[in-house]
Known about the structure:
The chain is an alpha+beta fold. It has 18 helices and 28 strands.
Amino acid sequence: MMQDDLRRQPSRVDGRAKVTGKATYIAEFRFPNMAYGYLVQSTIAKGKIRDIETAEAEKQPGVIKVLSHKNLPKLAVPTPAPDAIPRPFYALTSDEIRFNAQPIAVVVAETFEEARYAASLVKVTYDQAPHATDLRSVLGSAFVPGREQPDRGTPENAFAAAEFKVEAEYYIPIEHHNAMEPHATVANWDDGKLTVYDKTQGIQGTTGYLATAFGIDRANIRVLSPFVGGAFGAALRPGPNLIVAAMASRELKRPVKIVYSRRQLATAHGYRPESIQNIKVSADKDGKLTSIIHQAVHNTSAYENFSEGLVGVSRGLYACPNVRTVAKIARTDLQTPLWMRSPGVVSGIFALESALDELSYKLKLDPLELRLRNYADTDPETGRPFSSKELRECYRQGAERFGWSKRSPEPRSMRDGKYLVGWGLATGTWPASQAPASARVILNADGTARVESGTTDIGPGTYTTMTIIASEVLGLPIEKITFVLGDSDMPPTPGQGGSTTTSSVGTAVKEASELALKALIDAANAKEDSPFRGVAFDQLVFEKGSVAVKGRPETRRSFQDILKGHSESSVSVLHRSTPDAAERGKYVIASHGAQFVEVKVDEEIGQVRVTRVVQGTAAGRIINPKGAHSQEMGGVVWGVGMGLMEHTEVDHKLGRIMNPNLAGYHVPVNADIGVIETIFVPEEDKIVNPLGAKGLGELGLVGIPAAIANAIYHATGKRIRSLPITPDKLV
Ligand code: MOS
């Protein structure tokens, strides 16, 4: 969006609190008499703990106790058989080591520093077993979890017979979320009731996890997470910090805080799995796709079957009669992977959109033209219509803005001084789901409103988006509305993941706001002289904190006036919204985007700079334009990291993650980012949800790594199929 347009849009309602330090993150919460826990982590990848010697650590000043499976009471969860899968990991509950850096004990002390120092003195002995952490070493045992997808058409025959084809392998290493805020929990047991402040994306999930672990009723647990300093999927599952802090607090009868150090992100917290993808694509001489065969394998742990299903994009992104997809997983002795921003889709698209780019050169066809010739007007898998799909318009407007028509097709044909210039593009897509969610709307007698929903805001701007939605429906200015979230006592919602919060929670807020206005009118009509008696609800206009009958300004009453004489001082409505599953089921519902990237490559040193990106996005109605613009920019920045820098290194001899820190794990900084332009293509969608809004948080990343790789090929003539595209791969 243009800067001028954006300046007129609402800014983050929590922005001031965040930049002034008033927004409280988990590590900042405290209880009186609180103790600090510091984790001790395993130094082997597989085996059993023989013994944990704690005497030296417990002699240190300030140390209260060292807790481990040896002295902690059992959790309420049943212990599965050793070979059972899944066998979810609960830290400090057994002597078994399943991965390196596994939390195995916690030192609790009066201060963080005392706990951390004493943790270095805990001596652990092991019975070590051989481990395997390298995906390539375990490919022989890869398997398809669940059912195999049947072929569409006859892909192998079509590929064999095709005149134009590409077969290639694509690789993506393990990547870590590396959010700014470390994982952290503050836990306090008080008279059988547990209160935790936890970095989480899902308040309800965390509550349920604790209820199961301790065998207590959910009503006795309160989970709070008012601000989350980035998560990207890393807080979709409860981590060891949560269960260990809660166990330690129960055992020591004191509040306990655990805050991870940066390197402790290499605990049981997940990561984007390491993946190898083999793609075959073919086309006829007109550039019509005749086959896509997409086979992928990524690692999982030895104790859970985590699968990203990263081949799904190949079934639906393009019209193609013959498609085979196979998604396998293989066991490694690492912690279980986890969803990480645009999980599965960004990885699958990297392979598919790179392969299509390769095919375009074989066909001597413009890569954009190749996409247009294979545009899917209906879902190629089911034949169902799309609820809306303005992808063609994303291509058109994006190409125009970018200047794509000025691209010279030959690799190495564009230069800027000593730099080789490359232009590449890719397509993005993301499913637009909706789940049941609830919200409470309270209209106060002073003309303000409070809106509550037990969701979280991991950064995309949920506080703001929900405030905007309530403001539009209630006809109240944004400043008069307080939206609160992050508390399990509030109306339940799904966790914040999959770019579904606006769709799900937003619908709940919209519908609850409408019901609150109806309740307000009921309150007005309790008085004999109400001008709204007998007037249909849709004949009323709500604006600037007042209501009037359409075309009759003399009937205007402020919310304050209405509520003044009312027996209750406020109107309060609790509402649970549900998706219209029958209607939604008739369609395929997704967001789309086209992403255009310019790179400049210094061939002498192999350095790539992403100088310019244009994102065309079709995601239904854009409710919070400034926030959405930021999300799309964030997707590009993430894509620059994934494309050029991010790589978690595992020392396979030790089975240990070697760079769990921001010194060894590179992410983009300001100087790495060029010009990013976002275009939101108008898209009307009456099916997705009553807001007409589709999720876009993850969409903005999806095509970027592929578009970067494609631009690098155009610049240099070098096709790099392995991420990240670091200088060593280019010189
Ligand atoms: Mo995300 S990976 O849906 O937090």
